[in-house]
Amino acid sequence: MSDAMTEAVSRPGADQRRALWASVKPRGGRGDRTPLGMWFWDIDRVLLLLALLLMAIGLLAVAAASPASAVRYSGEKVHFAPLHYFWRQVMWVGVSLPVMFLVSMLPVSLARRMALIGAGVFIVLLAAVPFVGVEHNGARRWIGLGIAEFQPSEFLKPFFIVATAWLLSLRTKEADLPVVPITTALTAVVACLLMMQPDFGQTIIFCVIWLALLMIAGTPVRVLGGFLAAVPVGLIAAYLFYDTARIRIDAFLSRGDNSGASDHYQTDMAYATLTAGGATGTGPGGGAMKFRLPEAHTDYIFSVIGEEFGLIACAVIALLFLAIVVRVFVKLLDEPDPFRMLAAAGLATQFGAQALVSMAVNTGLAPSKGMTLPFISYGGSSMIALSIGMGLLLAFTRRNPFLTRSPYVVRWSGQ
């Protein structure tokens, strides 16, 4: 026995018990009560593993797509190294990982407060984009900071979800609050600002998430039916009066038509690249079709994966996204807190919907639009914003299962 323990045993009472506990307190196990230890054991480690696995796959995919994009965007005045975009993506992942971990450690109340403030800030920045934004490929979606650019809509998504979930959860405390009209007005403002950029794809994602949250929140069937009935009306109006939507839809519907009436080069090349490698792919660096593919490292990276790693790899990636959504929704089946249930469900819906749209565009099942594949496509704004979203999702699904199993926890039976 050590001198410290011998001295502790000689002192009776509380001092002795504290000294004995300090000498035998476990480190690194379930009994570790340090903040890091508590976070590790309370976090959904399977969900965290899935996110890290997608990031690792993303680095491999960007490394495969980087040479094609470097050749496409090099010119007389600028020349990009073959792995230029890969090394930049490594930097963005290095920045995003600490952000995700820090956000996931926040208490629920603090995470909610941060998201509400963030929603207000980025709505203001989104409104400023048409006036001070930077234009690329005919769209003004980015704000320049001199050394870098960021896309406010990417950061707004997770904050918008949490803010909408908080508003809808207030109805459980006060049934008369007009939360549905408030969230409708908020979504309409965001949609109008996005369509001014123009960014019809992100508009659809925001609206889909909002409708999903209304369903999960238990909105009356009559009200929900009215919103769902307005969806085809809105799509027809967008086609008739919104040039961006009409051009994309016409290009999608005219696939196979070589008359030149519409430009469907991107969707045709994405499908050709996706299927060029067959089931197992050409192998890393063996793809040739990717050099003819626009935005190979961002919007059409799923096609590059299909060419070099095969359709089996594409199916595995789709299953990983499905696993995230299913994992979250199953975990929320017994969630008693309405806010945490709505916020986590909305964030999972965002990951699933964004991945579904991106993969549908690459496979030719949806009109072409700029939509990154979460954690896989290249991009600093996208990677950091998605890491914030995943951090919030991990924070809202964090729980200590032993609290509900303890026989010393007294629960009111309602009698």
Fold and architecture overview:
The chain is mainly α and 415 residues long. The chain contains 16 helices and 3 strands. The protein has helices at 3-10, 14-24, 35-42, 45-73, 84-104, 108-132, 152-169, 179-195, 200-216, 221-241, 243-253, 265-276, 301-331, 338-362, 380-396, 401-405, and strands at residues 134-136, 139-144, 149-150. The chain has a 3-stranded antiparallel beta sheet with strand order 1-2-3. A hairpin with a 4-residue loop joins strand 2 (139-144) and strand 3. Helix 14 (338-362) packs antiparallel against helix 15. The protein is globular. It starts with a helix and ends in a 10-residue tail after the last helix. Mean pLDDT is 84; it is low at 405-410.
Task: Give descriptors for this structure.
415 residues, mainly alpha, 3-stranded antiparallel beta sheet, 3 strands
Compact overview of the structure:
Helix content is 67%, strand content 3%. With 415 residues, the chain is mainly alpha-helical. It is globular and about 70 Å long.
